[in-house]
UniProtKB/TrEMBL annotation:
PANTHER family attached to this UniProt entry: LDOC1 RELATED, RNA-DIRECTED DNA POLYMERASE HOMOLOG
The protein's name in its UniProt record: Uncharacterized protein
Domain of life of the organism encoding this protein: Eukaryota
Gene3D superfamilies: HIV Type 1 Reverse Transcriptase, subunit A, domain 1
Organism taxonomic ancestry: Eukaryota, Viridiplantae, Streptophyta, Embryophyta, Tracheophyta
Stretches assigned to coiled coil: none
Amino acid sequence: KAAVIQGVKREVAVRKLTAMQLKRAKNRGCTLYVVRMIENAEEDNDFMEKYPLLRDFSDVFLEELPGLPPKREFDFVIEIKLGTEPISKAPYRMTTLELVELKAQLQELLTKGLIRPSVSPWGAP
């Protein structure tokens, strides 16, 4: 039995900002975020030195996310057809280091209240 989950796809605008755009956004009081992915922590040491623009505007970016977004008028809901059963699939294989990192990140998110434990059969296995 196959389950099809449908939803409305929204285009998310992710773009780079010029120094002038960043300055204007700061003056308007916008909240801005910098997202950066690294493969190992050693690369993180001289990050701000490589990008002087980020150093110049470091006061614009939050160190930590303040929490979950506010409640909206309409929360996202996935409607499931009656009789549909959860799909059970084994997690991807991970190295010991990857598993340790995953557990640490999950614990941090739990501690901050950004995620919560779930016993839903539709949750992760």
